[in-house]
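re the bet — no i am not wrong, look at it urself. input seq straight from the record:
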Amino acid sequence: MRHRTLGGLRVSAVGLGVMPLSIEGAPDEARALATVHAALDAGVTLLDTADSYHLPGAGPGHNERLVARALATYGGDTADVLVATKGGRGRPADGTWTVNGSPRHLKAAAEASLKRLGLEAIGLYQLHKPDPAVPFEDSVGALRDLLDAGTIRLAGVSNTTADQIRRAHAILGDRLVSVQNRYSPAVRDSGPELLLCAELGLAFLPWSPLGGISRSSLDGPSDGGRDAPQDRFGAFHAVAREHGVSPQQVALAWLSALSPTVIPIPGASRPGTARDSAGAADLVLGAEDLARLDAAGRVRP
C-alpha cells in the first residue's frame, strides 16, 4: 500500500468510504464488518464516515457505531487508522438530506460522534456541507472551537467552493487539512477546488470517486462495483483490460495521478470490492493512459 499525507499524518493512498454499509441496500452486519476488515487487511488506514449515514429517520450515528465495532473486533493493529467523520447534515424519515451548520448543532454533533466512535478525540472532523442559513464563518468557527477544546484533532470542509476553502483556511490556518468534494470520471466540476488544495497543501478527498464507472451509494443499492460500462467512459474499461485490473482500479489510479494531495475514498459493500479498491494504490498509469482517461467523459461543446 502506497501512502500520502493528510494533516501531517501518513495515511493510505486509498481510503474507504463506509457510507454504503449503513444506508439503503446495506449488507448485514457480519458482511459489513468483514468489508471494513478486508480494507484494513489491505492496508487502508483512512475510514470516512458521518453521523448522517443511516437509514431515513433512524437517528444519527449508525455508521459511526459500525466503524467503532469494526475497529474493536479487528484482529490487527489499528493504531495508525484515521477515522474521519462529518457533521452538519441529517436524514429525516422522508429520506431527504437536511443541512444544519449552526455552531451549537455542530459542537453537539461532534461530541455525540466522539462518544459513538469511542475515541479520545476525533481524528478528522469535517463540516459536511455549508448551511445557506448560517454564515459560513460561524460554522467554521465551531470547528476552530472544537480544535481548541481537543474534541477533534484536525478539521476539514466538504462540498465547498474555492472561495469557501480560502475563507476556512483564513480562520483555521494549518489546522484545516482536507476538502471533501465530489470528483469522478463523470463529475469533474471541482477542478478549481482540487487545484487550490494542491496550492494550499490540503488533502483532496473525492467522494463518489467511481461515478461513471459504478453507481454511487446515493444512486441506490450497491451491486458490488461491477456496473456495465458506459460508452462515455469506455477508455477506463479499455485501460483496465490492458493492465489486467478492474475499471474501478483504473478510475482510482487516475484520480490519484491528478495531484499528490488526492486521496480517493471509494465506498464498498463487499470484502472483495474493498480489496480491489485498495489495490488501486499500487497501480501506476503511464502518460498515454492518463491522457486517454483525461479525455474520456468530457462534455464537449
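see?? The first helix runs from residue 29 to 41. told u. also The first strand starts at residue 3 and ends at 6. so pay up
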